[in-house]
Amino acid sequence: MTSLFKPSPGRRRGSDLESGKSENADSDSDTFYIPSKNASIERLQQWRKAALVLNASRRFRYTLDLKKEQETREMRQKIRSHAHALLAANRFMDMGREQGVEKPIASATPAGDFGIGPEQLVLMSKDHNVASLQQYGGALGLSDLLKINPEKGISGEDDDLLKRKTTYGSNTYPRKKGKGFLRFLWDACHDLTLIILMVAAVASLALGIKTEGIKEGWYDGGSIAFAVILVIVVTAVSDYKQSLQFQNLNDEKRNIHMEVLRGGRRVEVSIYDLVVGDVIPLNIGNQVPADGVLISGHSLALDESSMTGESKIVNKDANKDPFLMSGCKVADGNGVMLVTGVGVNTEWGLLMASISEDNGEETPLQVRLNGVATFIGSIGLAVAACVLVILLVRYFTGHTRDIGGGPQFIKGKTKIGHVVDDVIKVITVAVTIVVVAVPEGLPLAVTLTLAYSMRKMMADKALVRRLSACETMGSATTICSDKTGTLTLNQMTLVESYAGGKKTDTEQLPATITSLCVEGIAQNTTGSIYVPEGGGELELSGSPTEKAILGWGLKLGMNFETVRSQSSILHAFPFNSEKKRGGVAVKTADGEVHVHWKGASEIVLASCTSYIDLDGNVAPMTEDKALYFRNGIEEMAGRTLRCVALAFRTYEAERVPKGEEELSKWAMPDDDLILLAIVGIKDPCRPGVKDSVQLCQNAGVKVRMVTGDNVQTARAIALECGILTSDAEASEPTLIEGKSFRAMTDSERDKICDKISVMGRSSPNDKLLLVQSLRRRGHVVAVTGDGTNDAPALHEADIGLAMGIAGTEVAKESSDIIILDDNFASVVKVVRWGRSVYANIQKFIQFQLTVNVAALVINVVAAISSGDVPLTAVQLLWVNLIMDTLGALALATEPPTDHLMGRPPVGRKEPLITNIMWRNLLIQAIYQVSVLLVLNFRGVSLLGLEHEVPEHAIRVKNTLIFNAFVLCQAFNEFNARKPDEKNIFKGIIKNRLFMGIIVITLVLQVIIVEFLGKFASTTKLNWQQWLICVGIGVISWPLALVGKFIPVSKTPLSTKLSGLKCWGKKKSSGEGSL
């Protein structure tokens, strides 16, 4: 079976499906293989059809519901069609207005304490009715009706918030309730084998009562029915708890936090706490959280594809097209919006309320385990069928003996009721073998360990958005990390500056430089400064870089509000990560136009033709002076400082476009600039980041730094973090600039990408090119990102890691995992958890296969040789419960250990059963089978039961076999915890769940043996017999230890089998002959 045996190296080959090229023959022929991202519907349907499934409703619960997915797409299409119709109607009405046909508009109707009702707001927003908005006085008039100050927002007091929620509703939408416990109970009942067992139990019950009376005759059928009900209840409880965990995690994923203006200050609130009247600053990458109108904006453009289905970017204008739809993303520019509709009063709210969210998603490991389950289950079915045929043949030919030694069936003499009862018992045993043999819980163990891991990862500051990312992270061979905020603290402090032509202090700057710097800092920013009314410390908001520069402005004597009021913004060019700068054109009180630029120091410096000297005069930028500034930049960058330059130029007012449309398209001049200052901003490395990087390197995961900062700054930080070990390494291609990498051909990039450790002055597209090259080279790539332009790289990477604090909503939506604290140490923890998922599944497979092999062999050999089986249906159901549900809980929830980070990355298509696992499980299975078969055939004499009543002796022997078998599994669970470590007890005390399950298993086993004899077909054992059982179980510990000294081949067993297969083919065709 390919899923079980097929090997793969730790890194993918160039022709792998996920490397961007066509699927190779292996992937194509392997039914139970899907890529970790963007699997096609055909691929998903293919493995579902091939899987051997006993309970489809349970097995496919956590996979993508293909039918629901289709319904959701259709519903989205309907909503989008509605949005298109509204836009078309709006255009038609605009044309009517242009031709003088005006539709009468109703005046605002007060509602509660406010001047306009919710119906009018909703109607205006949905129809995008500009005329209605203008009648209400535009955004400012609407602000008055909603009783807010557009400069300061709502007051934010509890009473005001309550009134707004009461009048206009809250920003939530009704969600369809998740499945209740009874539904999980019902799903668990759909297992085909359990249904057959229940039918057999009812038939056995009826026959037993008829032949033996109600007092004695109900035990056989009743015990099977009770065991089946117990299995169903335990399964349902386990599944229900998993469902609750996923539900909580999904609630966390949807809970977006954003900044709003309340009481004049920027505060962070949950998207669910937004109310009508809230004023929200919007920047690139933000999601529009509610319906609203634009108060003001600069080059604001939205991606409305989530609502309209079209990837067209729509430019927004405060006068012509001011309406913003909830759920859209800010693609460019910035602005300030006024919320006019929330919750189900928005198109997005209606969409989310109308579709049932399907959180199902199959992961590659889950699909592979379905392949393993199908392979093992097929063998189990064949074995069960053989047992059934053998037992029936032996029975009807008179070879099956009763307790007295005589034949159970004598043709023409045995009553029909006894025959039916005996046949039902045979069928029950065969069906129970199928229950044990088909590992229905194996694929679900992935879901269990993922649910556990996701919950624990939340505590480790990682929010998983896609299940498969958890396991893929265990295969990561390289991490392309941002610098700012991930490797560093993102706590910026301006510590150095060059102005007036030299390195200088704030106090030494002439008034000309100070006034122009202050003007540029106050106007060319997306941050703000809040001044508390009663006095107190000023509050700076914005990105860390913005806050550092605003803080420097305050040292220069800047009064933020006063400076902003002294000039008006004509046009703005928001900071762009491609051009590495942002600018603003302002008109001063005396009518002059100043164009201010701020950005990467060497890029802005290259556009400067002059600078202002210490006397306040404009001086030409000579080659010597430019060299002086460049040396200053390199010197600061060499000390890990981020260098930012401020420059400006004047512009003729008459050349500035007059109309709004022309102004929005105006390319602000960025040449002939006058340098004002170059500042150095310190952003210290995170404590412990060097150890985290070293831990990754030791684990075979190469850490690469990709940053937009100066190459020298990148080099200095990389040396401090341990990404570069010495200055000798700091040369191409180990240290490379983005533009150099960008200029290469694909083949050239592929040749050097393995050697790259640091990329400086990179654009988001450079990061994407690096990811693509690495993937083509066979790497499993994890990428961190926070900006909107990082989205393509996050999407392209095998694992996209978005930053929770600095990250935009666009970046988060393109990611697979969100790092909540932006810390590289948390990324390393995700790697540990990824490896833990894979390791835990392997532990469970080893444990389950040992039970499978032992139970099957014992029953088959006993059936063939004696016509009877030592393990009854009820006993096998108890073993199945230990193996499936309790075993998964115990082994699939092991926390990660440091030992995992001492291994190389896990190949995503490596065989699930390694040579070490084969060795361990075969040793245990052979031992268990040998001992229990000896007991089965020689147990009466070995246990000294020859003089006992034969019926009692056989029952004691069979009870001892059952008890020893269960205790072997309990002790072997300890071995399964550490497949490749000699100390199986390491960390055992910390894992309370494991210990609890072992204790529960042992206590229940004692109860079954000592007190439930009639139900479980057991009899009480004396203390010597208990000691024998415990001894048989305990021997598995030293046996496992000795086994670990047996060397195993590094070549996977599957590779050898494949080689033999190929050799056989060649020989049969004559190619293999000498």
TrEMBL record:
Gene Ontology molecular function: ATP binding; ATP hydrolysis activity; calmodulin binding; metal ion binding; P-type calcium transporter activity
Domain Cation-transporting P-type ATPase N-terminal, first and last residues per copy: 136-209
Enzyme class name: translocase
Annotated catalysed reactions: Ca(2+)(in) + ATP + H2O = Ca(2+)(out) + ADP + phosphate + H(+)
Subcellular location per the Swiss-Prot or TrEMBL entry: Endomembrane system; Membrane
Record-level GO cellular component terms: endomembrane system; plasma membrane
EC annotation from Swiss-Prot or TrEMBL: 7.2.2.10
Major localization class: membrane
Region (Disordered): 1-31
CDD domains hit by this protein: P-type_ATPase_Ca_PMCA-like
Biased composition (Basic and acidic residues): 13-24
TM ranges: 184-209, 221-240, 372-396, 426-452, 993-1013, 1025-1046
Family: Belongs to the cation transport ATPase (P-type) (TC 3.A.3) family. Type IIB subfamily.
Protein name as annotated: Calcium-transporting ATPase
Species assigned in the record: Thlaspi arvense (Field penny-cress)
